[in-house]
């Protein structure tokens, strides 16, 4: 068990726990275990990318060269920045600085939304080029494996976007909760939310080279 | 932290009688009530899966298809597989017995996340209803393995719906796994060190690790199959250069460890029962604790032994074969250890012990044939035949369900406050053990002679063996149905059990039966190793085994 | 064995190859060892239960709660003993992966729900397979739809048949008779009817059987016709103006690829090159070949592969293993190909 978190003093202890400390460290461990599970979920995609990359090196290079490196890179920066703001929010909650904390959460939500907007634009562009498989337009690439790449790409980034959307909803809820009521549960909510947000970021950091940098 | 004040025994508030409304059950966050909710749901699912098994055995009495159509048969064995694997065996021991007993065993008031626990039950129920709907209304004909490209591009049945149900039920498993891991790490009573935990806690811990790390891989592979069916987003489609074997790799990366999800808790239950009824500390505690962890760990490295004839490389096949031999080691350790625990015991024969002993026998038969399957050239002959069917039924059903039954009888007095009736219980245990062996031994033989699995019709020469198997299944079915009646009967008419009818040592026996809502009025402080047993009826210090000796 | 035998109950099924006999020997040998390892449990478990029953007079003094030497012993020794069988089963498996060079080749196409076999001479049969006894036979198998698995219980072998690539299975049956061919991988509604009969005959009888069925053409000759019909000869023919590699002498030789790798020209390579021409582009050629994916069925592919195989391996005595990287096509032994 770690040091008692500043700001944890007022936490309501649920009846199954002996102390606020026990409750907090249990919550934190629970989040970590859940995140391990999440990593395995995306693990299937990483394996798919790697296996098919070995099977179809040219096709994957060809397909990767049709992705939008600029948007991908900007999005990486956006997401990394959001990880910074969420980390700042955790610091803020530890020091009981409500205004700064809510501001950081708002920034995080904003950056997450920006990522989704850019991603949406990228999808739209790819739809226009016919890269979206089975979307009604002829697929422009002929090299074997290119369509596999884009299928994996849409499945993986789609699942990632779904996770991010959930993260945005969580963060907004926490921010509103903090602003309106300032409840005692906010510190641990921010902590858990931040861990989840970092995971979304880390998964993107792994997806980014697999998608955008293959063969460039 | 409800204070259970001193009440007259008849009026003592328990987790059962503090409220009676339906809503008090549906909204409960008490791990004991959730365990009971799971018990009810899982029993229902077990008998639905069993009904499908009955149809299978009826159909196979003759070599031609006379009970069911070919399509009907394929759908029935899919119902049997899907329901039994994901809606009974995987959650069986952890979600009923584990839920009920784990917090009591380690001296906690509840699991770490009680609301998550309740949510897991609701997810389970929702997924069950969904699975049953899609399996019964229209049905699915892929088998529980959902191999591509059959499942993704060829089958015209409700594959997507059932895949969605299995995907959803995975979250229920993961929720339970997370809950157990955190509970064992963070909620142990003072003095309850890792090596003072009963072995069941170790095996539930190992099980939970496997659940948390393997289930998402199943989720993703099923999601990809569904995407391929619904949106045409081919990932395993050979026409796009995809590889259907990738699905098999992902599927077995989950589904082999899933076998350990089904058997590890059974090993834990068996250990508890044997220690109690032999009145002995378990022999080689650390070996048996670590062997659970070893099984969980090595279990992630053997999935390829399902694919020796699927077209993987020879090098991979040899590595997977060797790993599969290796995982037999911790399993063998357990069997030898249980035997050694009986040495110099004071053994009382009761229904739980009969179940535990039949667990050992069935597990040994399953394990031995597992080694035959791990041997490359031998597997080539017997894989995808009834030899495999029989092997995994011995492990996942024979052994695992025996342990489940044993545990249910062992903790029944704690769960309900009533004793079950011993005579019918012994009879049922006997029926299950004998019926099981009669059902599945002939299947080994049929498999070695060459009867493939999932055959609706089969060459005439296998009929004798199949009739033998079906006859055994009749006895087995009777054995499985009996507890339903005498256990229900005992709820009202059973002898009051008292707090500790087995004079057992676990913390769960130090609280009243049935336990009060929050288990412990005061969290106990643990000062002894697990299993400091004395002979039945012995009081005080008659037993020569002192704690110092134990710690040696 | 007569066909009637297959309809009545038998306790045993004959092993009709030396491989099958070795599988049986290993299985029962291993079961013997495992039984030996289980015997202590099988004897002691009931003995303890009776001897140490509650209230029995047996002494319980100095009951051990552990014994490190014993525990390590029963962890390690059984494992080491069983490794003997691991090893022999692995060696046997590896033998089964390497068909003899001179094996007779039969093409197999699996589809829902039938097996189609094509003999080298062009004789085809469905759901039955005639083979000569005492001769190594290699099955080159592919599926037209889902995954199947060809299972020959009398020979103790099976191999999955995949939709995307060729897999091999070889055997040398020694005893004449009729045996089961079964599909062992679930493949849909009539999976259990995807069965056939393996007929092992004396070589002379086999020859007579072949002669009795007049094939229109050998497999290779049919392939040659297809080679023209699909327009392959337009580029790969002897007098073609388009610069594509000649296929004579290609079979079995290593093909240098444009990306620097090498691949052996086997059935899978030839099939891939027809369906997925970009997968392996031969060094020195531009990737101009169109894909024939979706236009040629597996049956025709089998014949095309047989034709290219019939063009022979490079003649060892003549051909220099030389790669003309400047793109000037070497003579008739030009081993490069971007088909």
TrEMBL record, chain A:
Keywords: Membrane, Transmembrane, Transmembrane helix
Positions of transmembrane segments: 29-52, 73-93, 99-118, 152-180, 195-215
GO MF annotations, alphabetized: cytochrome-c oxidase activity
Domain Heme-copper oxidase subunit III family profile: 28-216
Location of the protein in the cell: Cell membrane; Membrane
Similarity annotation: Belongs to the cytochrome c oxidase subunit 3 family.
The protein's name: Cytochrome c oxidase subunit 3
Organism lineage: Bacteria, Pseudomonadati, Pseudomonadota, Alphaproteobacteria, Rhodospirillales
UniProtKB/TrEMBL annotation, chain B:
Keywords for this protein: Electron transport, Heme, Iron, Membrane, Metal-binding, Respiratory chain, Transmembrane, Transmembrane helix, Transport
InterPro entries, A to Z: Cyt_c_oxase-like_su1_dom, Cyt_c_oxase-like_su1_sf, Cyt_C_Oxase_1, Cyt_c_Oxase_su1_BS
Domain Cytochrome oxidase subunit I profile: 19-527
Transmembrane segments: 36-56, 76-97, 118-139, 159-182, 202-227, 258-278, 285-303, 309-333, 353-378, 390-412, 424-445, 465-487
Leader sequence residues: none
Localisation per UniProt entry: Membrane
GO cellular component, one term: membrane
GO MF terms held by the record: cytochrome-c oxidase activity; heme binding
Gene Ontology process terms (BP): aerobic respiration; electron transport coupled proton transport; respiratory electron transport chain
Pfam families per record: COX1
UniProt keyword Transmembrane, yes or no: yes
Membrane topology: Multi-pass membrane protein
UniProt family annotation: Belongs to the heme-copper respiratory oxidase family.
Database matches in PANTHER family: CYTOCHROME C OXIDASE SUBUNIT 1
Name of the protein: Cytochrome c oxidase subunit 1
TrEMBL record, chain C:
Cytochrome oxidase subunit II copper A binding domain: residues covered: 101-212
Membrane-spanning residues: 28-50, 71-94
Membrane topology recorded in Swiss-Prot or TrEMBL: Multi-pass membrane protein
Catalytic activity: 4 Fe(II)-[cytochrome c] + O2 + 8 H(+)(in) = 4 Fe(III)-[cytochrome c] + 2 H2O + 4 H(+)(out)
Record keywords: Copper, Electron transport, Heme, Iron, Membrane, Metal-binding, Respiratory chain, Translocase, Transmembrane, Transmembrane helix, Transport
GO cellular component: membrane
One of the record's GO molecular function terms: oxidoreductase activity
Domain Cytochrome c: 218-312
Lineage top rank: taxon: Bacteria
Primary localization class, coarse: membrane
GO biological process: ATP synthesis coupled electron transport
Biased composition (Basic and acidic residues): 314-328
Enzyme class: translocase
Annotated region described as Disordered, given as residue ranges: 314-339
Annotated Acidic residues bias: 329-339
E.C. no: 7.1.1.9
Compartments it resides in: Membrane
NCBIfam families for this protein: CoxB
Assigned protein family: Belongs to the cytochrome c oxidase subunit 2 family.
Its biological purpose: Subunits I and II form the functional core of the enzyme complex. Electrons originating in cytochrome c are transferred via heme a and Cu(A) to the binuclear center formed by heme a3 and Cu(B).
Protein name: cytochrome-c oxidase
